[in-house]
Prior knowledge:
This protein has one helix spanning 3-12, and strands at residues 20-26, 31-37, 42-58, 82-90, 93-102, 105-123, 130-137. The protein is mainly β and 138 residues long. The protein has one domain. A hairpin with a 4-residue loop joins strand 2 (31-37) and strand 3 (42-58). The longest helix has 10 residues, at 3-12. The radius of gyration is 15 Å and the shape is globular. The relative contact order is 0.24.
Amino acid sequence: MTVNEIQELVNQYDYWDLRVLSLECNYFADEIKLVYDDTDGYCVIYNFEGCYKSIFDHVKGYDKLRPVREMVTGQIPYFLQAVDVSETTMDNVHFYIVKINMFPLYLEVWCKDIKVQKEKLEKTRNSKDYVNLQTDVR
Length: 138
């Protein structure tokens, strides 16, 4: 996909002011996964793969009040405000650059591939957990 197609897909899901449910960084920051609560029982997932640069910058003056791992969904303070996708080439290597404002956390990811998908969200007894049932991958 082109950078414009990815940005259009991100915008199509109308992310503004929706709650981020999880943010994972795995395999020594090679993969980053962001999940946010869409509406009507769905979530949208951004999978960043082949990551080379990742910056997690939390507002230092923002008091979290408690460890995030202890929060239930309604207490998670991260809401998407802006998602901007661009691209660059360095040393003949193409990278997507994604800058995400989810105040009070700002995220910047440089990666080789981005997957955006919408899935059915099934809440469990512990509302922090979810089970993916149906996938709309683009």
